Structures are given as C-alpha cells and as structure tokens.
Amino acid sequence: MRDQPVVVMGHGGGGALSAELIHDVFAAAYGNPVLAGMGDSAVLNLGGVRLAFSTDSYVVRPLFFPGGSLGDLAVNGTVNDLAMSGARPAYLSAAFVLEEGTELAVVDRIARAVGAAAEAAGVTVATGDTKVVEAGHGDGVYVTTAGVGLVPEGVDIRPQRARPGDAVIVSGPIGQHGVAVLSVREGLEFGAEVTSDTAPLADLVAAMLAVTPDLHVLRDPTRGGLAASLNEIARASGTGVRLYERSLPVPEAVAGACGFLGLDPLYVANEGRLVAFVPPGEADAVLAAMRAHPQGGGATVIGECVAEHPGMVVVATGLGGTRVVDLPLGEQLPRIC
C-alpha cells in the first residue's frame, strides 16, 4: 500500500499511511515551524494573545448513528481539538458540501444538530459556506469546521512535553464510536446497543487545568484510536509508553464486537474521550477532578510514560507478557468521522 501511486482509503485512517501523506506531500509543500508542532490544534501568538486554531472535515457514513450524527461530530471534533491545547473554544466556522439530490430534510436535521451541539459546547458558529456538487460526486453531506479559542497564560500542552514518570490517564471507556458507526453501517447487532461517545471535552479540560496548569499532553484519540495517539506522542517526545492491559476500560459490548470482527479496541476510534499525560505528583488530584465531571466519570490510569523503548508503545498483558502496539498502517474502520 505504501508504494501506491494513488490515494487509498488508508491515507485517511490516521495511521502510518496518513503520517506519510502529511510528511511527504503537505509538510513538504508548505511546512513551517507552526505546522511542525503537529498538535490537534496550532497555538498562535497574535499581538500578545495566545490563540488555538484548528480545522477538520467530517465525512462519516452513515450520517446518523446511535448517539450522534455528522452534525455532532463536526462541532465536537473541532471543539475537542482546541481543548487539547488547553484552549477555551469560542468561535467556529461551518462549511457544508451538499450532493445534488440529497433531501433537504436531511440537511436541515444535520444543521440543527450543529446548532444544538454548538450551544451545548458554549461556542458560536460565526461564519460558514455552502457548496453543491453533482449527483454521484459526493456522499450526501460533508461538513468542514474550523475553530479558534483562547489559551490561558502558563498553559503549554503539546506531545513533545511527555516525560518519563507521567501517568497516562484516559477519560472513559474506549472504542464506542467506531463500533456504533459500524453497527449501523453494516446492520450488525452485538447483543447490546453501542452508542457513540461523541461529546465536547472543553469543560473537562478546564476542570483538569483548575487542578494544575502543568498538564503535559492531551489528545483526543479519534482516527486510529488510542494506539495511534499514544504512538504519535511517544515518537514526538522520544519517550516510551507502557500500558496495563487489565486497566484498559473496554466496555463488554465493544470487546464482544471487536472479538467477533477481529478488531483491537485500542485501534477503534473515539469521539468523546481524551488521553492525558500528567506529572506523577498531580495524577491523583487530576484523576479525582476528572471523575467528578460528567465527561470523566470513567477516568482511569491505564499506564505510564517511561524512558525505556523510546518511541514505542507496549502493553503488559494479563498473562505477564508484553506486546508492542504499533502505529496502524491505515484504519480498521474507514469513514468513521
């Protein structure tokens, strides 16, 4: 796949193929020191004010799924990208690409979901755009959102700041979004309905920063799941990550679905979870603050940052062994956001 002369689905999966595309094409074309940070959002200094800026496109199929829709993802995804820099999201743009023949009732439903999600997240949709493409040249509705927010003074959250000894904390159960989308797309039932975890995380991050502004790293593990996010952090910081299999919060229904389909929950996308690298002296207080928040009630310490095996993520298994969790090549479940 890496030698393909054309774009393949794996290039959009958040794994190794995505990283190669970004490095070899986009960064080569217009790379700069700001872009080189490769965070979920860029932190910019404009006239002494620190702004976080992020943009993302949403092409999920189907447009509606248990627990959410394309509209929810478009808002929450960008809000969360801003929050992963410690920013307080303020304003969004929303650009719609509509396919000829799409029912206006569907467009209206998605637009209303965007409005409701923005209100819930405390942000304003301040500008936007609409384009229409010919039938057969789209997939109903695509949405691109961009957002800006203010970064508090003294906050410096980025993947390069991970340090050996940091506690690795995830804010709740993993794998729900990817399994929820797959269940509707393929008409599968897993004994219990799995709903997407899509949710805004800025308030949760604010609660964590109220405990300490010295959070080292925050990431929302979307495409490529927790595995991709942790590998990116390990490589950016030159550290290793050790996870404990028995501590990973995988819901029973997600575990069952992944076992049935041959998937690893660590690689399944999330849309309302974050992973945090927290200095060891602050970990207990941050964990308590997370658990006191509605979006962090299931927060769990799942591992630690280590000096060994820099750039690698490993899992200590329940049987006493160790396995490497590599960066995925592409995406187990394409078109999930």
UniProtKB/TrEMBL annotation:
<dbReference type="InterPro" id="IPR016188">
    <property type="entry name" value="PurM-like_N"/>
</dbReference>
<comment type="similarity">
    <text>Belongs to the HypE family.</text>
</comment>
<protein>
    <submittedName>
        <fullName>Hydrogenase expression/formation protein HypE</fullName>
    </submittedName>
</protein>
<dbReference type="Pfam" id="PF00586">
    <property type="entry name" value="AIRS"/>
</dbReference>
<dbReference type="GO" id="GO:0051604">
    <property type="term" value="P:protein maturation"/>
</dbReference>
<feature type="domain" description="PurM-like N-terminal">
    <location>
        <begin position="39"/>
        <end position="151"/>
    </location>
</feature>
<feature type="domain" description="PurM-like C-terminal">
    <location>
        <begin position="163"/>
        <end position="309"/>
    </location>
</feature>
<dbReference type="InterPro" id="IPR036676">
    <property type="entry name" value="PurM-like_C_sf"/>
</dbReference>
<dbReference type="InterPro" id="IPR011854">
    <property type="entry name" value="HypE"/>
</dbReference>
<dbReference type="InterPro" id="IPR036921">
    <property type="entry name" value="PurM-like_N_sf"/>
</dbReference>
<dbReference type="Pfam" id="PF02769">
    <property type="entry name" value="AIRS_C"/>
</dbReference>
<dbReference type="InterPro" id="IPR010918">
    <property type="entry name" value="PurM-like_C_dom"/>
</dbReference>
